[in-house]
Design goal:
It is built from 2 helices and 4 strands. By secondary structure, the protein is α+β, with helices and mostly antiparallel strands. A 4-stranded antiparallel beta sheet has the order 1-4-3-2.
């Protein structure tokens, strides 16, 4: 797995394409994947360190958390 700058958040798998259905399977506290801007992240270990708490990430586990801004 590739590591991000903080060492705890990682891409789910490098150079792998996931379907939305596959990502939706990772929707548990200890198996928490998130889609952001077309990339899949494994937040399982990092969730407890999230500034807003692990609970907020739990709401989006297995989901697409991309924010769309229209100007």
């Amino acid at each position: 797995m590739g590591k991000e700058a903080n060492g705890d958040v990682s891409m789910a798998k490098e150079s792998k394409c996931y379907t939305v259905e596959e990502v939706k399977l990772h929707n548990k506290r200890d198996d928490n994947w998130l889609m952001i801007n077309g990339k899949v992240y494994d937040l399982s270990r990092w969730a407890k360190k999230h500034p807003g708490g692990a609970k907020i990430l739990g709401h989006y586990a297995g989901e697409d958390a991309t924010v769309c801004v229209f100007l």
